[in-house]
Write a structure and sequence with these properties.
heterodimer, A: mainly alpha, 7% strand, B: 920 residues, alpha+beta
């Protein structure tokens, strides 16, 4: 019984921890999305975001690394232990999601889904 | 990436790295390398697009770094302040200065942002002027300042000989041998001569550019082969001098471009044997990519094959007459250019003393640095352009200074307040200067972007006749130049307003109430600035006007023949296939018959030298019945032609007859001379029937009778007056001199578009000899137009700068009048209330605009007249004081000044007296 209560409390505190980040800035969400599958380096993230946004968002280095630094400071990202391959530029660093980062991205996605479905209910847009 | 793009890439990366210093150190350490790498990747992607994509990319990248970097830095400062720790930079005496500067900078930034319209106008004006300066400086940098592409360029000199009527000539074989053996201050004295050869063997026959060199030239230019080896020092071939050829084998170096394009960069080619002019030639090495001989840099071409020129020592010592070799050498260590030059001059004098040259021949020799030779001819034009953009910058400074002074009224209250709060005069001045320098630096940054585009444009549009123009690019020198220019520009346009401000008496009370309407001294200063601006503008516009007139005059020069509907191409008959004059003559007869049989061809002829493209060299001759003075013989440019030549070129016959098919080998020898020769040597007698001989030395005179006089043809260029010239029928030339003309041009006159003739002419050539390539085929109108390209380029640029200057000067006049009308609203109101009519007010304002412009005009005209000497070098047919140009320009400027004054004048007329009186 004790044990389960403790678990419950931890679950609650981590949900609160996740809620704290919401709503995410669109660019933060895009960066988290870019790292869902695998760790990527800066160029990879920029290209993935261009793909996600169909070319509408294209980050410059100053902007991207400002976001990366902030997300790392918040504990949503971490530098991945993956090293650049032999034939790659050795300056490359890979970044990956932390567990919190993944949870925050998922929470943001559900938040957006709720928003979209209320827009649908209000007949603002047709249902997907 | 091509060199211009690579240079701009490097420059921009460098700029970005500098901007990156805005970031706090901890950030630079943790993410710096990754950010740089990402930026490189993205930039490379952008460089796959056009200039617009690149411009967009760098604008975004720089503003991104500027904003994020400043943001990160501010956050760090805020954090340290919150911790109560002032950064060490703000402590101590040096720290106070840095702190003050920072404060001034941030204040200046805020002040500029508060007045976006002023800032945008000022930055754009400065960007235009600074950008033009940076772009022209890139040209000056690429063409004049960059060292030549050889490891030791400063030691390389070129050798020249000079004689009566020839201030600068190439060397003959004997002179080369003498200088090589006798001049102690030079080493590796070398000569070379460029031409073209037919390359056959693998694939289509191809005409390629080939140069015969003495192998020592490889040491002078420090050539390192890309593959294989250099020519051995004793490599040899007998130069064709009319003697039988005694080699059956060449060694050759191949140019990188030919190797890549024709042989796909196959390394196995080294050691292979190809056919050059029908003779087997073994390729011993490949030249490094981009390698060019000094003469190639000047001609804007590159050599495809280098073959050794061997010298038959004993025989060649007697060849003093053929000045056909470019020559270069290295100055030995321990000698200066002056010492080497003095020694060469002294040697040449000794040749005359030894009796090798006649006293009257005035034979001499001298050295010039190689660099001077390559870039010397474009120097005047480039300095003129740089001076022009310099003037443009001064005008822009005057405009921005004018804007600043107009703002000074608006900011009077602010300055008075600061002064009342205890800011010293120096402190106020520093503050204002900081603002101006910041403004100029912003203008400079924008100007650098503009320059990037401009340089690409200039390099694309620029004429091929300016050597090394292709090498112009933005590099660190240009960036540094731009930075310095921007900085001093800021000081220049800032110093006058700043001085005035900090020293002026306080004519406004702190309450912002106008205490007095006196503004005369300030208005005088602004007027003086406008007068200066108009004067500078006059100099620029007159210069542009003069070059436009000069270009017009050049294009009106009658070249002496009709370049329209005329196709020309070059033929080099290989000596192996055409060993004697009979074969050469037969070939030309058959070819011309084939071409004439083509529909829409009216005339066709072969000839030695192409008009309008450079000197064809001269030849001494003797006039029958006149004693020959050695060293002062009659001399004329020599053309060798086939009979239909004059009709083909569309040259007018002034007297006598042209050549006919009867003027052949064996018939009585005839010659046609041009008007210049007739006037020089037969001023008082009829040249027709007189006889001349090209053999001035031997006993066996081949007298040729002058049968016709033709109009002068411009041989070297439109600008160069025609030389005395004589024309000989090819067969009789062969007979008289024993020299065979293997290299000839062919001209084809059609009834329509010359370019359309190329396919049928190529077919005709293939029918006569399928091994011969049709090379350098071009409509003559194109060649004629190309010969004016350099003048056109300079004129276009000057006209552009002059237009910009005129625009800026008009804005300046408008600004000062609009400002003055605004200030005098009250006075105008009173005048109107007292009954002044609109026309008088209009005249009053227009009159003050006119007065300023007239003073400026006068000053400008005087300035141009006194400093126009520089300009004369690029002018043709007009003097610096050409009255027509001055009159036209004065009218244009007055009209522009009137237009600029009209708007403020109209505003003055519309002043509502009641509102004006009530407003204060």
């Amino acid at each position: 019984m004790k044990a389960s209560r403790k678990e419950g409390r931890e679950g609650a505190s981590s949900a609160a921890q996740v809620e704290r980040f919401l709503p995410l800035k669109p660019v933060d969400f895009m960066v988290l999305m870019a790292l869902l599958d695998e760790p990527r380096h800066g160029y990879g993230i920029v290209k993935d975001i261009e793909r996600q946004s169909e070319g509408q968002v294209s980050l410059m280095p100053g902007n991207l690394y400002a976001v990366l630094r902030r997300l790392m400071a918040d504990g949503l990202l971490q530098e991945s232990p993956r090293q650049p391959a032999e034939d790659e530029d050795q300056r490359r660093r890979y970044y990956g999601l932390t567990e919190t980062g993944r949870a925050v991205a998922a929470a943001e996605a559900s938040r957006m889904r709720r928003l979209v479905s209320s827009a649908e209910k209000a007949k603002l847009i047709g249902e997907a | 990436m091509e060199p211009a793009r690579r240079a701009s890439f490097r420059l921009m990366m460098w700029l970005c790295r500098r901007l990156g210093l805005l970031y706090p150190q901890e950030v630079r350490r943790s993410c710096g390398p990754q950010m740089e790498h990402l930026l490189e990747d993205l930039a490379r992607e952008a460089y796959r697009g056009g200039p617009a994509a690149r411009l967009r990319f760098w604008t975004r990248a720089l503003s991104d770094l500027l904003l994020r970097g400043a943001d990160a830095r501010l956050k760090q400062i805020r954090r340290s302040l919150a911790r109560g720790v002032l950064s060490s930079a703000v402590q101590g005496r040096g720290g106070i200065i840095v702190g003050t500067l920072r404060q001034d900078l941030s204040f200046a930034w805020r002040s500029l942002r508060r007045n976006p319209l002023f800032t945008i106008v000022a930055v754009l004006t400065l960007a235009l002027a600074i950008g033009a300066n940076s772009a022209i400086f890139s040209l000056v940098n690429g063409v004049l300042l960059q060292p030549l592409p050889y490891p030791d360029p400063d030691r390389i000199v070129t050798l020249w000989s000079t004689w009566r009527g020839q201030p600068k000539g190439q060397l003959s074989m004997a002179e080369f041998l003498d200088f090589r053996d006798q001049v102690e201050s030079l080493e590796h004295v070398s000569i070379w001569s460029s031409g073209s050869v037919n390359l056959t063997g693998q694939g289509e026959p191809e005409r390629v550019r080939a140069t015969l060199i003495t192998p020592s030239l490889q040491q002078v230019l420090s050539i390192r082969p890309h593959l294989g080896s250099l020519l051995p020092a004793d490599a040899g071939r007998v130069v064709s001098t009319g003697q039988a050829q005694d080699t059956d084998h060449y060694l050759a170096l191949m140019g990188h471009a030919l190797w890549m394009n024709r042989f796909g960069g196959d390394p196995a080619l080294v050691g292979e044997t190809l056919q050059i002019d029908g003779v087997p030639a073994q390729i011993v090495g490949i030249l490094p990519p981009g390698f060019r001989l000094p003469t190639d840099i000047v001609a804007g071409r590159s050599t495809d094959l280098i073959l050794p020129l061997t010298v038959k020592e004993s025989y060649d010592r007697s060849i003093r007459g053929w000045h056909q070799y470019a020559a270069a050498a290295l100055i030995k260590d321990g000698f200066s250019l002056q010492q080497a030059d003095a020694e060469v001059r002294q040697r040449a004098r000794r040749f005359t003393e030894q009796g090798l040259y006649p006293e009257e021949g005035l034979y001499g020799a001298f050295l010039t640095p190689l660099k001077e030779e390559v870039v010397g001819p474009s120097r005047d034009a480039l300095w003129v352009l740089l001076a022009a953009v310099g003037f443009l910058l001064l005008i822009a400074c005057a405009n921005v200074a004018g804007l600043q002074m107009a703002r000074s009224d608006l900011r009077r209250l602010e300055m008075d307040l600061r002064s009342a709060l205890g800011a010293g005069r120096g402190r106020l001045m520093m503050q204002l200067l900081t603002e101006n320098v910041l403004l100029a630096l912003l203008g400079g940054a924008a100007g650098l972007f503009l320059a990037m585009g401009l340089v690409e444009l200039l390099v694309t549009l620029g004429p091929a006749s300016v050597p090394r123009l292709q090498e112009a690019a933005l590099d660190w020198r240009v960036a540094l130049f731009t930075l310095l220019v921007s900085f001093f520009t800021g000081l220049l346009f800032g110093i006058a307003p700043a001085l005035r401000w900090s020293r002026s008496s306080h004519c406004y009370g702190l309450g912002g109430q106008r205490v007095s309407t006196a503004g005369a001294p300030r208005q005088r200063l602004r007027s003086a600035v406008v007068v200066a601006e108009v004067a500078l503008c006059v100099v620029l516009v007159i210069s542009a006007g003069l070059t436009v007139r000069s270009l017009y005059k050049l294009s009106q020069v009658d070249p002496g023949f009709d370049p329209d509907n005329l196709l020309v191409f070059f033929l080099g008959l290989p000596e192996a296939a055409y060993p004697d004059e009979q074969a050469v003559e037969d070939f030309h007869r058959r070819l011309l018959e084939q071409i004439r049989a083509l529909p829409s061809v009216r005339h066709a002829a072969s000839f030695r030298g192409l008009p309008l493209t450079g000197s064809i060299g001269d030849w001494d001759f003797e006039i029958e019945g006149r004693p020959l003075v050695e060293g002062n013989e009659p001399v004329g440019d020599w053309q060798v032609v086939t009979p239909d030549y004059f009709a083909t070129m569309g040259m007018r016959l002034l007297k006598g007859r042209a050549f006919s098919q009867a003027d052949r080998r064996g018939a009585q020898h005839v010659v046609v001379v041009n008007q210049a020769l007739a006037e020089t040597y037969f001023p008082d007698s009829d040249p027709l029937g007189q006889r001349i001989s090209q053999n001035t030395r031997g006993q066996d005179k081949d007298w040729a009778t002058i049968v016709g006089v033709v109009e002068n043809v411009r041989q070297v260029s439109f600008a160069r007056p025609p030389n005395s010239t004589f024309y000989r029928p090819m067969e009789q030339f062969h007979e008289a001199t024993g020299l065979i003309r293997h290299a000839m041009w062919v001209g084809v006159r059609g009834s329509g578009d010359a370019a359309a003739l190329v396919p049928s002419v190529r077919q005709a050539l293939a029918q006569v000899d399928p091994q011969l390539p049709l090379s350098a085929a071009a409509p003559f109108s194109q060649i004629a137009s190309r010969s004016l390209s350099a003048q056109r380029f300079v004129t276009l640029l000057l006209a552009l700068f002059a237009l910009s200057a005129l625009g800026l000067a008009c804005v300046g006049i408008y600004g000062v009048l609009a400002y003055s009308v605004n200030r005098r609203r009250r006075e105008i109101g009173i005048r109107m209330a007292l009954g002044a009519d609109a026309r008088r007010l209009l005249t009053m304002v227009l009159g003050s605009g006119l007065r300023l412009s007239l003073i400026g005009l006068l000053a400008g005209v005087l300035l141009t007249l006194s400093a126009g000497g520089v300009l004369q070098a690029v002018l043709f047919g007009v003097t610096v004081s050409d009255p027509l140009t001055y009159a036209a320009i004065v009218l244009i400027l007055l009209a522009s000044a009137m237009a600029a004054s009209y708007l403020p004048a109209r505003r003055a007329v519309r002043v509502d007296p009641i509102a004006a009186l009530r407003s204060d």
